[in-house]
Design goal:
- The complex is a heterotrimer of chains A (301), B (293) and C (332).
- With 301 residues, chain A is mainly alpha-helical.
- Chain A has 13 helices and no strands.
- With 293 residues, chain B is an alpha/beta fold.
- Chain B contains 12 helices and 10 strands.
- In chain B, a hairpin with a 2-residue loop joins β9 (242-247) and β10.
- In chain B, α5 packs parallel to α8 and α8 packs parallel to α9 (205-221).
- The longest helix of chain B has 17 residues, at 205-221.
Chain lengths: 301, 293, 332
């Protein structure tokens, strides 16, 4: 519970949206799952940003050894062509995180706006938007991506667009559900009764109170996107000019028995990212657990 | 006054044990810790329920009345750390030291049951009524079929056409009927003591009467001991033999309902009674008194 | 009487019943032909049990919903022809107080933000004087300046204080009418009295029209000028002396259901037959009077046709009951 003193120091002018973001972060860090997930993601992010410094070799350059097992020279070993796997995994963090984050944010934008409008206005909006979302949802994500890639060829941007298109309905449905619920909240009715404009009601009254599950969904979306990208890489239809974990697995396919290190390390990296994102999502859910809320409410009675 | 020495002594002759209180709470202290904050929710409360007696615990929100009941039933919110002090003696056994398994047995069979404010939260929406009641039945080898016993229970709590009600789902019943189903579930384990936490608060006044009638009939016919936790003094007036008035975690006044209603000693009790009376007698008196706090 | 601020005539509101079939959607009549007027300087109590449609009525009075049929007039203009400017004026003139004060304040906003947004949008005070303006209005509802409520969040206030803030938010717009939906029911008895007192005082001081929707007959008795008793979407009785001289059998049943507050004179325990309850949900669209199944006056005519609302004498109560109305006709 916030003490009166601490909230008094909170800047009164700060926007409700930013504050709710900060609140969410603080709550996640307070849970063991969440803080662990945040640590994993931080490590991955730092790795991605400082890849040139961390990686001992150029990921595309060839070393003198091919299929060398892990050693102090090549931490994760080398592949059949002589690429240093550690360096490739480090650089792979870049593409995976970019794919994960940007598609999750794109689907937040697309799905969020759709969900908000459908949930606030109901009626025709609701019917049309939600049917479209359902249509996309019934098609497995990977099919949508395969279809687009086969039409337009695989480039990095197309990949992003395709993955985002595949996952936005998840976010749309979630935001829609939240807004349906919040539309009935008394403080939303109070804002409407007080004559505040729709923009204010949606962005200031409703959205901040839906942030928690939305951010959970962003984390889950990101992990789904990373998985889809890895699957595409594994199938060999990812952008060939990109070093990604999925692609490393694709290369490793033929050397499963001779060079376990070619598949183990990229695979572990994918797992780490997925686990990290899901732990953050868990932490978010834990922080929002209604039980903890009701405990403090029952407190005085 | 309570005789502290009679605590569950096995040497007592059988004839006298009928006079021993069913539930005796002595110096109960409950502190709840959630995060960094802690609340002293119940402060050295003495509390007594005799066999077949209906006792009211009345107070406003924050008075500690619900925490008291939950502490006795050992149903505390598991997210908070709870510090308990004092003694809770039920039917000669100290609940403070009773192991969890024994405690569960007490809740399941001829110990005590609880009726909550919100019946919908308590009932499983996907199961027919009779199954939910049957699950709570105390095992009685060679007795009637469960369905017959359930119907008998539903009839006892005053539900019209119990066979039809038994085959329904919770959402097909009205709020007052659901609450009586919950009471039937509570009775299924043949408890000696029934805790009712705000049993009529969520109900309309005409329905509230039906549930009150049910509770009063049970009290009269079965002689089940009852603890009714409520904020509503009129429920106490209709239902309870004795009453404890709580405020800020303490019992500020207790005694026979008639005495307390006619001559309250504590000014807070007096004011509560005055306000409730004003609103219940369809007000000759002006409802509004000078604001205090 | 003066022109009403809000006037509902023949207002009906249907909802789709989620239990109905896909092909034959069942309609629930939440409101059925309701006529109500909100006048300045009057307190109208709308009483009834859950499912009577009283909360739907409150939403319609606030134009949070549009009726299925019938008309809501705001200062003489029908709701369907309210222009943008008139709608904006309506949103200033007609304010609300809700049941759960904790839920009616945005949990993520300080009191200053919650009230400030409204005050800024309606330009109630210049930015430099905003704090002073808000403090003054909080003081008007009994929240002292010294305690500095503005930077607090709703959860840091007690229920009574939250409800005062909600009332302040409504009052600072200098409304012509306030619609309060169960403003007392989630508050403690001692706080209820204070809030009722406050609303009554504001009503007398500012001459607003006050509508209180409530299931608590006792509280309404002490403050209402007029009472509308609702049962299953219909106003079954309306008048100034409903509590002293109830006409409709349902009103009598409601009054008779009040507990005694006298432990020496308890109500007798009724048997199942006496309570007259049946296991099935009452039929929804049955012909005739909707109260016939619970009514002890019920006659043959009650099953045949729905009673019309008839006024008993000049300024007398308006009652919707065959039996009572026939007696009245026989008497005069």
């Amino acid at each position: 519970m916030t003490s009166p003193a601490s909230s008094r120091s909170a800047a009164p002018g700060r926007s409700g949206f930013l504050r709710s973001l900060y609140d969410v972060f603080a709550q996640v860090m307070a849970t063991s799952h969440g803080s662990f997930g945040v640590i994993i993601l931080t490590i991955l992010t730092v790795t991605a940003i400082f890849a040139p410094i961390i990686a001992p070799y150029d990921p595309i350059a060839l070393t003198d050894d091919s299929l060398a097992p892990p050693s102090w020279t090549y931490l994760f070993g080398t592949d059949n062509l002589g690429h240093d796997i550690f360096s490739m995994v480090v650089y792979g963090a870049r593409s995976s995180l970019i794919v994960g984050l940007s598609t999750a944010l794109a689907s937040l934008l697309l799905g969020g706006v759709m969900g908000m409008l459908a949930g606030y206005y109901r009626g025709v909006f609701e019917t049309v938007l939600m049917r479209v979302a359902e249509l996309f949802q019934t098609l497995p994500a990977i099919i949508i991506v395969l279809f687009l890639v086969s039409l337009f060829g695989s480039s990095f941007w197309l990949l992003l667009a395709a993955v985002a298109l595949a996952i936005w309905p998840l976010q749309a449905r979630l935001v829609y559900g939240q807004f349906i619920r919040l539309r009935e909240a008394d403080y939303v009715a109070a804002a409407i009764v007080a004559g505040l404009p729709v923009r204010h009601v949606i962005l200031r009254e409703m959205l901040p109170n839906a942030m928690q599950p939305i951010i959970v969904q962003v984390a889950l979306d990101a992990s789904i996107a990373i998985l889809i990208e890895a699957a595409l890489g594994y199938l060999g239809i990812s952008d060939p000019n990109m070093v990604s974990w999925g692609q490393l697995l694709y290369e490793a396919q033929n050397f499963m028995s001779e060079a376990w290190w070619m598949s183990i390390f990229p695979g572990a990296a994918i797992c780490l990212a997925i686990v990290g994102l899901n732990m953050v999502a868990d932490g978010l859910n834990e922080a929002a657990d209604p039980k903890s809320g009701s405990a403090s409410r029952n407190f005085h009675d | 006054m309570i005789d502290v020495h009679e605590r569950g002594s096995p040497s007592r002759p059988d004839g006298e044990s009928g006079d021993a209180p069913l539930l005796r709470v002595e110096g109960l202290d409950v502190r709840l810790h959630v995060g960094a904050t802690s609340v002293h929710a119940v402060r050295s409360v003495d509390f007594l329920v005799r066999r077949g007696e209906c006792v009211g615990v009345v107070g406003e929100s924050g008075s500690g009345k619900s925490t008291l009941a939950r502490a006795v039933m050992r149903l505390m919110p598991n997210v908070s750390r709870v510090e308990l002090g004092g003694a809770i003696i039920f039917d000669g056994r100290d609940l403070m030291t009773l192991p969890g398994a024994e405690m569960r047995k007490l809740r399941r069979k001829s110990g005590f049951s609880m009726v909550f404010q919100d019946p919908l939260g308590f009932l499983n929406p996907t199961k027919r009524i009779w199954r939910q009641v049957a699950e709570a039945l105390s095992e009685r080898p060679g007795g009637d079929r469960p369905f017959a016993r359930v119907v008998k229970l539903l009839e006892e709590v005053g539900l019209p056409e119990p066979e039809r009600v038994a085959k329904r789902y919770p959402h097909e019943l009205s709020g007052g009927m659901r609450q009586r189903v919950v009471i039937a579930i509570a009775l299924a384990s043949e408890p000696q003591l029934l805790f009712a936490d705000e049993p009529t608060t969520a109900l309309d006044s005409t329905v509230q009467l039906l549930v009150l009638d049910t509770l009063r009939r049970l009290h009269r016919d079965r002689g089940t001991g009852m603890v009714v936790i409520t904020h509503d003094l009129s429920v106490v007036a209709e239902l309870c033999d004795r009453v404890y008035v709580m405020r800020g975690g303490e019992v500020i006044e207790s005694g026979a309902t008639v005495d307390i209603f006619e001559a309250p000693e504590d000014p807070y009790t007096a004011r509560l009674i005055e306000l409730s009376r004003a609103s219940h007698t369809l007000g000759a008196a002006k409802l509004c008194a000078p604001a205090s706090g | 009487m003066s022109q009403p601020i809000i006037q509902l005539s023949g207002v009906t509101q249907h909802f789709k019943d989620p239990g109905g079939g896909l092909l034959r959607p069942r309609l629930v009549r939440a409101l059925d032909g309701v006529d109500i007027e909100v006048h300045p300087n009057r307190t109208l109590a709308i009483v009834g049990e859950s499912g009577s449609g009283k909360s739907t009525l409150a939403k319609l009075l606030l134009l949070l919903r549009r009726p299925t049929s019938g008309e809501i007039r705001y200062r003489g203009v029908a709701h369907s022809s309210l222009g943008r400017a008139e709608m904006k004026k309506f949103r200033r003139e007609v304010q609300a107080v809700f049941q759960d004060p904790a839920a009616s304040l945005n949990p993520r906003m300080t009191i200053e933000e919650s009230l400030g947004h409204v005050a800024r949008f309606h330009r109630l005070a210049p930015p430099a004087e905003m704090r002073a303006f808000l403090s003054r209005h909080l003081e008007d509802v009994g929240l002292s300046r010294e305690e500095d409520f503005l930077p607090r969040f709703p959860h840091q206030l007690s229920g009574g204080q939250q409800q005062r803030v909600a009332i302040a938010r409504a009052m600072m717009l200098s409304p012509a009418a306030i619609i309060a939906d169960e403003p007392l029911s989630s508050l403690d008895v001692s706080i209820q009295a204070q809030i009722l007192d406050l609303m009554l005082e504001l009503r007398t001081r500012t001459g607003i029209g006050l509508v209180i929707v409530s299931h608590d007959l006792g509280a309404m008795k002490s403050i209402a000028d007029e009472v509308a008793v609702m049962y299953r979407g219909k106003v079954v009785e309306f008048g100034e002396h409903v509590f002293d001289d109830p006409q409709h059998p349902y009103t009598r049943l409601l009054l008779d259901s009040q507990l005694s507050m006298d432990p020496r004179n308890r109500r007798p325990i009724r048997s199942l037959e006496e309570s007259g309850e049946s296991s099935g949900a009452l039929p929804l669209s049955a012909a005739g009077c909707s109260f016939q199944f619970r009514c002890d006056l019920s006659q043959e005519v009650c099953a045949r046709s729905a009673p019309r609302a008839i006024q008993h004498g000049d300024g007398g109560p308006i009652v919707r009951c065959h039996v009572v109305n026939n007696q009245e006709r026989a008497d005069t």
